[in-house]
Amino acid sequence: MTYPVDKREVTVVGINSAIMFISFLAVVYVNVNRSYIPLKCKNIPLINILYTTLFLWFLGDIYTYQPTLVHASRPICIATMSWLRMSLGIYSVISCHLLRIYQYQCIFEWRIRANGKHLWIPAALWSILPLTYGILASVLPEDKGNSYVTDPPMCIAEKPVYFVAVAFTVVLMIFWVYATVLMRRVNVCFNEYRELVVVIVSTIFVVLAQVVLRWIPAIGDSGFAYNTMASMSDVLMGQICLFALIYKPAYHSLTEKDEYLKFFLRTLKRENRQTEYELANGEEMARISSSFAGRKSYSGLGHSGSRMHRRDHTNIRADDGSMTGSTKSLAKVLYAGHHAHSDIDSDSAFRGEFQLEGPDRMLV
């Protein structure tokens, strides 16, 4: 028997697709402007991996919650529900955030850069649970794992595999909560801890709501209503996971790029975190920080400082062909107008906008 396409499901997928496309454009913008230091410090490769996992999760949700729009079979159900939605989706999203916390720990506590064995060994360890679930769900018999029913045609998860999925989610989230709590002791510069808390609280809320509502007969058995709530909350939770990390530097790179870069570098200097950010972001960060430090020394040198300023300005123009976008942007900031009172006024304005708990606690 052939079932017609549910136009309501088309609407839901259309809305979710539009949201995913907006976040895709945001990720493209971040990559195009990857040389802008406040964005680069957000670990753009990990942001790209995070978006990929969110997209795979979105695809898996379509097969799970909009069954009239897709053609399915039991192998397809296993591939989409067990792998795309769970293993490569939500489990990998949590693993990305665990890896981010681990990298903060490496930089700010252990003073090492998370690359080589310091990157791949933890990444491999955090892949064990997602891969274990995917393999287990693939080998379970149909009456205990994911199955395909024909009336109406859809993929469903039998109770054994469903509870295994919930158990794996709980284990991963316990690790995530524990790692986030440990982050309170890490003295980061731009209050990255708040970003982590926003993401984890929203994730816990959505997961708990879905699990509880799934077992309320009036809601869990409502078909379209529950499926819509689950698929749209998954997409919205994914956007929070992404935009909580990138929205502040991305917004300011659009609206006040040079001023925000000055604020960013001053904050690093004030909190004495230049070394850690240079360790995390390589030689370009060190070069820009050195230029900024040199600019600060010029402001009190009087006439001789002005001559030095002109000479260095000429050198920067001569080297312009090898400069990145951020370096060029900073050069304009540092040498276009360098009166001390304007520096103080602009820095005070940013301090007023971003101050959280005291004079040295800033949010990017």
What do these coordinates show?
- The protein is mainly alpha-helical.
- The chain has 16 helices and two strands.
- The chain has helices at 7-32, 37-40, 44-65, 74-110, 117-126, 128-139, 159-182, 192-214, 217-220, 224-255, 257-270, 274-281, 283-298, 302-318, 325-336, 340-354, and strands at residues 146-150, 153-157.
- The protein has a two-stranded antiparallel ribbon.
- A hairpin with a 2-residue loop joins strand 1 and strand 2 (153-157).
- It is globular and about 65 Å long.
Please provide a brief summary of the model:
This protein is mainly alpha-helical. The protein contains 16 helices and two strands. Helix 7 (159-182) packs antiparallel against helix 8 (192-214) and helix 12 (274-281) packs antiparallel against helix 13.
Topology:
Elements: H1 7-32, H2 37-40, H3 44-65, H4 74-110, H5 117-126, H6 128-139, E1 146-150, E2 153-157, H7 159-182, H8 192-214, H9 217-220, H10 224-255, H11 257-270, H12 274-281, H13 283-298, H14 302-318, H15 325-336, H16 340-354
Antiparallel strand pairs: 1-2
